[in-house]
Amino acid sequence: MNLHYTGISLARLLPVLCLLQACATTAGLFGLGKEQPQTTQAAVVECEPDSASMPLAKWTSLSGNILVRPAFFAGGPVPDVKYIQLTAPVAVAAIASTLYIVDAGQRAILGFDRGTQTASILATVPELGVRAGLFVDRAYTLYLAEPVSSAVTLYDIDGNLFETLSNYTEMPQPVAVVTSTGGDEIFVGDELAAHILVFNRGGTLTRSIGTGTGTDVRFLSVTGMASGPDQLYVSDRLGHQVHALAPDGSYRYGFGKDDLQSPGALAIDSYNRVYVADNGDNTIKVFRGGLLEAVVGAADDPVGLGFQVISSLWQSDGLMYVADAARASIDILKVMPPCQ
Questions:
Q1: Is 203 left (phi over 0), alpha (psi -120 to 50) or beta?
Q2: Which residue has the higher pLDDT, 11 or 71?
Q3: So where are the chain's domains?
Q4: What's the burial of 206, exposed, middle or buried (CB within 10 Å: 0-12/13-18/19+)?
Q5: Which fold has domain 56-335?
Q6: Strand pairing report for 329-335 and 319-324
Q7: Is the torsion defined by CA of 46, 48, 53, 57 positive or negative?
Q8: Of 80, 109, 128, 133, which has the fewest Cβ atoms less than 10 A away?
Q9: CB neighbours of residue 4 within 10 Å
Q10: pTM metric for this prediction
Q11: How many CB atoms lie within 10 A of CB 48?
Q12: What digits encode the pLDDT tens for the residues 233-263?
């Protein structure tokens, strides 16, 4: 595995959040060393002064050959060292210390353990194309949107396929999938039909969003989705904007029409900032309250990320995962807390 670290200082990457009468240290953030004693005095919140213009800090990346997780053995010879090559990561999702990668070259879903720095093939997907949508819920269920097979497939923690959602008439080209905050509904975004289908946990289609009927919004296209605590975000490539919807699908507002060229993958951080992969100029554009706050990955960006084709975004536990299919890499960036 090629694991690249930058020379950014630890102090820059570890903003101290001290409003809850206890300050986290490097031990709290990375599990290293011992935690400092708790304090009963409320301290001043420290944040990165330029976090508004640079909300993401370069941290590490995953590319090349990844060590395969060895199978359990007892009393036998040490197994041969094997590797999996990351060739075309088209979707990424993460929970706890596990990173899930959909690799179009391998035609498989890979599981990467950040603790052991090893990977395994969880499931093979023979009909996997060059695009896919991936989501993982708190129960470690994986949801894979497959445009080529016109289906959304569900896998358990061990990579076993246990359910398939399909409806070719209404869902000919699914590209994105998320679940509701409570997990009782599954939202599937279809690019060709330009709408969102909502399924219940029994796999029954209950309604659609974005058809333009009645008071419903009319999407021109659906190229990405992300769900927040009280909001669903939908990227519309042909409409050059992102739509914000209520949990029930009712329309709230749109943003980015003057700033986005070809919006695709979406992610939301814990500060309610919305990250939009703009495939028109290969940047990540960061919005807060519907207003453009920063552009990451531009030619003059001091972070120097140099994205080529951003195929997927995922934010989890203060880290932003960026799948770049053209560079055959996953950039792992640190999310910098805003000052306000």
A1: left
A2: 71
A3: 56-335
A4: exposed
A5: Neuraminidase (2.120.10)
A6: antiparallel
A7: negative
A8: 80
A9: 14
A10: 0.83
A11: 19
A12: 999 999 999 999 998 888 999 999 999 999 9
